[in-house]
Amino acid sequence: MLHLFFWGIDGFVVLHKTWQAELPHAVRSILEGRVWVPRAVMAACVAHMKALLETQLLPGHSLTAREAQVLQLLMRRLANKEISSALAISERTVKYHVSNILSKLQLEDRRSLRLDPLTLRTLTS
Prior knowledge:
By secondary structure, the protein is mostly helical. It has six helices and no strands.
């Protein structure tokens, strides 16, 4: 389901018993520039991201909190300039973090971050 974020959506509401109460909150959140994801989906994403990172990171290497933030924005296909603005850091610092992330994940470039929908679920925490 979360592979839709790659296509540019900012949120979704699951049609269940409480969707009518949830919809105004989702719309307000998206209009304020935030994403909207149901709690259960978010929990599944976090668990999957942890598992992914554990299998892809080089032994003895882990992402810093800031690298994890940058990774989340990379997964939304943001450019370095957009990431620097979102995190209030310089573009040079973003480039540094991106380089570290790619090295730790053993990837050649940011295009290699393309993930299947199952993997993507974990990157929205």
